[in-house]
Amino acid sequence: MKGFDRFCIDKNYVKIKNSLFNYLNRKKSVRDLFYKFYNKEKSLIDIGSGLSPISPVPEKTLFIDISREGLFYLENQGYKTKYGSIAKIPLESNSIDIIFCSEVLEHVDNYNKAFKEMNRVLKRRGKLILTVPVHKKYWSFDDEFVGHYRRFEPDEFEEEIRRSGFKIIENMPIGSRIERIMTKLAVKLFKNQKDKKEFGQVKLFFSVLINYILYLIVRLSLLFTTKESTSIMIYLCEK
Question: How many structural domains is the chain composed of?
Answer without folding.
Answer: 1
